TrEMBL record:
<dbReference type="GO" id="GO:0003908">
    <property type="term" value="F:methylated-DNA-[protein]-cysteine S-methyltransferase activity"/>
</dbReference>
<dbReference type="InterPro" id="IPR014048">
    <property type="entry name" value="MethylDNA_cys_MeTrfase_DNA-bd"/>
</dbReference>
<dbReference type="Pfam" id="PF01035">
    <property type="entry name" value="DNA_binding_1"/>
</dbReference>
<dbReference type="GO" id="GO:0032259">
    <property type="term" value="P:methylation"/>
</dbReference>
<feature type="domain" description="Methylated-DNA-[protein]-cysteine S-methyltransferase DNA binding">
    <location>
        <begin position="91"/>
        <end position="169"/>
    </location>
</feature>
<keyword id="KW-0808">Transferase</keyword>
<keyword id="KW-0234">DNA repair</keyword>
<dbReference type="InterPro" id="IPR008332">
    <property type="entry name" value="MethylG_MeTrfase_N"/>
</dbReference>
<dbReference type="InterPro" id="IPR036217">
    <property type="entry name" value="MethylDNA_cys_MeTrfase_DNAb"/>
</dbReference>
<keyword id="KW-0489">Methyltransferase</keyword>
<comment type="similarity">
    <text>Belongs to the MGMT family.</text>
</comment>
<dbReference type="InterPro" id="IPR036631">
    <property type="entry name" value="MGMT_N_sf"/>
</dbReference>
<dbReference type="GO" id="GO:0006281">
    <property type="term" value="P:DNA repair"/>
</dbReference>
<protein>
    <recommendedName>
        <fullName>methylated-DNA--[protein]-cysteine S-methyltransferase</fullName>
        <ecNumber>2.1.1.63</ecNumber>
    </recommendedName>
</protein>
<keyword id="KW-0227">DNA damage</keyword>
<feature type="domain" description="Methylguanine DNA methyltransferase ribonuclease-like">
    <location>
        <begin position="8"/>
        <end position="86"/>
    </location>
</feature>
<dbReference type="InterPro" id="IPR036388">
    <property type="entry name" value="WH-like_DNA-bd_sf"/>
</dbReference>
């Protein structure tokens, strides 16, 4: 959980695939999430924020995060150099911290990722933890897919997961818009 007395800051960033909300402490990014681009939704998001703890302000760390995300979307960057702070259970943090080892353009199944972090028998729990990742894109949970390469479990929406994977070179996933079985290309995961 976040400390009650710690001041948090947030901003919105219009990315090529939707509006992103970034939240930081003074020294670390703590959330990257997609929000609906509808003004009413944005206003509802702002109205639900505890204004005593969270403040709309473009701090140096948020400016740097927006700069690096812009570079990433323009394919001028493949890795992020930002401090991340993860709030969750010990198990969630273990899973989330392991996501940073997934390189740009890589793809792995939930089951293989669980084995990679030494938890092959707990792959469903690992999958659930991945679906709760609070720092999208920077902590690349979008690179984890079902064993049959189907898209699943992305809090930003499956269409955005597909767009992120397409951005990283997995264009064959376009076929999932209409039918899951219209292709015969299976990547080696």
């Amino acid at each position: 959980m976040k400390p009650e007395s710690e001041k948090m800051f947030y901003c919105f960033f219009k990315s090529p695939i939707g509006v992103i909300k970034l939240v930081s402490s003074n020294d670390s990014i703590i959330e990257v999430s997609f929000i609906d681009t509808n003004k009413i939704s944005i206003n509802n998001t702002i109205n639900t924020i505890d204004r005593y703890i969270l403040k709309l302000e473009m701090t140096p760390i948020l400016k740097n995060a927006v700069k690096q995300l812009n570079q990433w979307f323009r394919k001028e960057r493949v890795n992020f150099e930002l401090p991340l702070r993860l709030y969750g259970t010990f198990f969630q943090k273990l899973v989330w911290e392991s996501l940073k080892f997934l390189q740009f353009g890589s793809l792995i199944s939930y089951k293989e990722f669980a084995a990679f972090i030494g938890m092959s028998k707990s792959y469903r729990a690992v999958s659930h933890a991945i679906s709760q990742n609070p720092i999208l894109i920077l902590n690349p949970c979008h690179r984890v897919v079902s064993i049959n390469t189907e898209l699943s479990g992305f809090s930003g929406g499956l269409h955005r997961k597909q767009q992120l994977l397409n951005h990283e070179g997995h264009l064959y996933l376009e076929c999932y818009k209409n039918s899951k079985n219209q292709h015969n290309y299976k990547p080696k995961i």
